[in-house]
Every structure is written in structure tokens, then in C-alpha cells.
Amino acid sequence: MTDIAHADAVVEGPIRTPIRIALTAVMFLTRIRVPSWVTHAPDDLARSTPYFPLVGVVVGAIGAAVGLIGLHWWNPLVGAVAAVAATVRITGAFHEDALADACDGFGGGWTIEQVLVIMKDSRIGSYGAIGLLLVTVMRIAALTIIATYSPLLFVAALIAGHVLGRWSSLPLIAGLRYVSDADTSKSKPFAASVTPARLAAGSVLSLLVLVALFGDAIAVGILTLLATAITFVLGRYFRRRIGGMTGDCLGAANQAVETATYLALASAPMVSRGVAVWWR
Fold first, then answer.
1. CA-CA distance, 35 to 11, in Å (whole number)?
2. Would 10 be classed as within a structural domain?
3. What are the beta bridge partners of residue 245?
4. How many CA atoms lie within 13 A of 125 on its CB side?
5. Do residues 168 and 254 make contact, with C-beta atoms less than 8 angstroms apart?
């Protein structure tokens, strides 16, 4: 009993409590091992949402580190494939699995009930396989272009993509209701958990990361507006098709925003601007 009380005291406090909650987000979104005093407590999971973008920093940085090895020893294509493979491994294909389920559900279902039933099916169908393949190839292609121009921009792109991808979950959770079975959904603790204050905190953290990465108002503005627009459009689509969203919808949005971030940074104007920013 004394040991338990001591453990509770260790993880509580003005500094330790935020650390525990941040590690809860890491635990939920990745396969990274965290201390045993970090649990799946519903309250901690709900409070961890503002830290989602910071988890993106960790995942993107790991992917970038592995990708740079591929760039150094082989070429940009190998580096891009290695980076994507590393991020998939570190997250347990969490969002890729959600994307495949969402493609199957929205592609194969006509009614709300059909869409939800298909998305709950763990088997992957034609829509899911094709959607996952196309998005993965698009991510690799865009990252290859970026790596060709600048290894530093390659690092920044990976971090920015994962930060904005995870940020997209916050406005969707805040603005849409869950329509999945609350008793079986992994996302149950997050239902209605993103308050205006938490949304603002997560958004500010995302913006600060982008500013630190690029130091350029135009680049930061374009990426922020792009992520916001895609999230808004997908949110409207989810509401129209199923009256809200599920955890698979969040994962699909994550993948869409991440891919769009790479494509934006791979475009000729953004690449030239990004190289200029990094090498000035």
C-alpha cells in the first residue's frame, strides 16, 4: 500500500502531472514504451488530446532519423521509403489501418448502418487496399521529391506532416459527435473531450512547431490553412454521410492531412522557398 501511495505521489504535481498526461498521448498513439505509472485512465486520455501534435513531433523525428540513413547510404527514394516504414512501425500502422477501414466503409456502404458495420470489420477490402496503397505511394513520392532538394527540408516535412495530421483530430473531436458503439470504440474516452481550451492549446503547440521548423510566415500560413481546409471538408463529409465520425474517420483525416502537407512542401514554389529558408 505504501508503494502504491508513493507511486501516485511521484506522478502527481504541477510538473509531473502534465508529463504523465503527455506520455498518455504517446502511449495511445504509438508503440513507444512508457513508464508503468502511465495508464489508460479515461480522464488522462481525455486530457491528453492537446499533446497529440507533440506526439507527431516524436514520430516525425524518428521517421526523419531513419530516412536520413537511407539518404546517406542509398538515395532519396530509399530514404523516403525508410522514413515512412519507420513511422508505420513506431505507430503500429494505427492511422493506416483506420484509413483502410474508412475507405472500405465509405466506399462500400450506402446507409449509415452499412458504413459503420463495414468499418468495424477487421478485414480489408478492395477500397481499403487501393486507398491505402495510393496514399502510401503518394507520401513516398512527395517525400522523395523533398529529399532530392534538401535533407533538412525532408526532416522538417516529416515532422510537420505528423504534427498537422495529429492536430486534425482535435477539431473533428470538438465539432462532431461519435457515432460508433461507445462500449467497444477505442476512441470512447475522447468523445466530447476536446474543449475550446484544449483545441486552442493543441493549435498553438502545432503553430509553434511549424514556426520553429520553417521560420517563414508564408510557409506556415499555407500549411496551416491547408490542414484546416482539409479537416473542415472531411468533417462536413463525415457529418453528411454518417452524422458524425468514428475513430477510423480520425485516422483517415490524419493520413489525408499528412499526405497533403508533403505534397504542398514538394511543390516547386514551396520547395524553393523551403530550401531558401533552411540555407539562408
1. 10
2. no
3. 178
4. 16
5. yes
Would residue 46 count as lying in a domain?
A: no
Please report how the helices 52-73 and 151-167 are oriented relative to each other, as an axis angle in degrees rounded to 10. 150
Sign of CA dihedral 132, 174, 206, 93: negative
Which residue type sits at 273?
A: R
Specify the residue for cell string 452524422.
Answer: 243
- 16-36 pLDDT, tens digit per residue, is 578 888 898 999 999 989 888
Please give the Cα distance from 265 to 248 (Å, whole number): 26
Could you tell me if residue 98 is inside a domain?
A: yes
What DSSP letter does each residue of 62-82 carry, written as one string? HHHHHHHHHHHHS-HHHHHHH
- Torsion (CA) 248, 176, 55, 41 in degrees, nearest 10: -90
Q: Nearest CA to 202 among 166, 235, 244?
A: 166
Question: Confidence class of residue 8 from pLDDT cuts 50, 70 and 90?
Answer: very low
Domain count, the chain: 1
Domain range for residue 152? 51-279
Contacts of 39 (CB under 8 A, 6+ apart): 24
Using a 10 angstrom Cβ sphere, with 0-12 exposed, 13-18 middle and 19 or more buried, the burial of residue 45 is buried
Q: What is the CA radius of gyration of the chain?
A: 19
Q: Is residue 182 part of a domain?
A: yes
Q: CA 122 to CA 186: how far, in whole Å? A: 14
pLDDT value for 198: 92
Query: Which residues lie closer than 8 Å to 174 by C-beta, 6 or more apart?
Result: 194, 195, 196, 198, 199
pLDDT tens for each residue of 33-83: 988 888 777 788 888 899 999 999 999 999 999 999 999 999 999 999 999
